[in-house]
């Protein structure tokens, strides 16, 4: 597992649907006031607003803990204990320069290193296309967290979707509605960020929960969502814009296959600003001990968001268990180097993610599939020319 990510919870094989998840919301699960008061949070927020005046505060759900039911138990299989927090508190605690000290102090004072941290619960999607590609986005420079890095579609479930206002009360948020918001929010984020119609998306399956250690252990619920569109159709929707088009500058498709229980990322196609401009300092960086020979693709492709340029060499990568999260064993993700991947991106190994998934196009399953590919590489394809 990548040291920047820790696995908090692994759902049973195949993932959990909405009806198998339960939420308990209580003030007891809110963060503790900081030692000496919360003035440092206010100061950090004001400093952020000066640098990024487009930021705004909003209430968020805080993950306190999660418990899986014993195997074979009737009823919901997962209990999430949630409190309330805010985006302001997130930037003032998890992203504060004192975050490491806050974790140490939380362990000392409360026996919980996350006690003083906002820890807003995020959501992320392993979004699979009909032609077996996973979808990644390059985050824009205007976002507060991980600007310029590669990530999956995602965001936050919103308390305000259930109870309008800046300060919702725990009693105003019934647990079953919070669960519904958790699952529906990941679909909404896909619709807003990738500009896909809701009817093209399957119901989400919860794969697990991962902590992003670069933001002091902030947790994200990771889902699997199948799209009925091909990667080309997804690209067309993405390039036409959407409600949150400003949050990303390019889209990357990573082809998946399953061989011997391993996810194989065969090659990527990328469109959008900053993904494959010739001469970029952060272009493909292949280590000397890279395990497989590169498979170059011929042809040209245009980038509608930023001029045009030739397709860069793409690489075949086989990933074993524990390496899926950041693809960091490969040295590159198509034309996006390993260092550009946002920590916590998916966060799960293929074996732990949806090992028993019955969806034939999942691309993440470690369970036997009727027609699992047996060849060592995918069929060669060329990236077709695009229109400017």
UniProtKB/TrEMBL annotation:
<dbReference type="GO" id="GO:0008768">
    <property type="term" value="F:UDP-sugar diphosphatase activity"/>
</dbReference>
<feature type="compositionally biased region" description="Low complexity">
    <location>
        <begin position="365"/>
        <end position="376"/>
    </location>
</feature>
<protein>
    <submittedName>
        <fullName>Nudix hydrolase 22</fullName>
    </submittedName>
</protein>
<feature type="region of interest" description="Disordered">
    <location>
        <begin position="148"/>
        <end position="167"/>
    </location>
</feature>
<dbReference type="GO" id="GO:0005654">
    <property type="term" value="C:nucleoplasm"/>
</dbReference>
<feature type="region of interest" description="Disordered">
    <location>
        <begin position="284"/>
        <end position="309"/>
    </location>
</feature>
<keyword id="KW-0479">Metal-binding</keyword>
<keyword id="KW-0460">Magnesium</keyword>
<keyword id="KW-0378">Hydrolase</keyword>
<dbReference type="InterPro" id="IPR055295">
    <property type="entry name" value="NUDT22/NUDT9-like"/>
</dbReference>
<dbReference type="GO" id="GO:0052751">
    <property type="term" value="F:GDP-mannose hydrolase activity"/>
</dbReference>
<feature type="region of interest" description="Disordered">
    <location>
        <begin position="359"/>
        <end position="388"/>
    </location>
</feature>
<dbReference type="GO" id="GO:0046872">
    <property type="term" value="F:metal ion binding"/>
</dbReference>
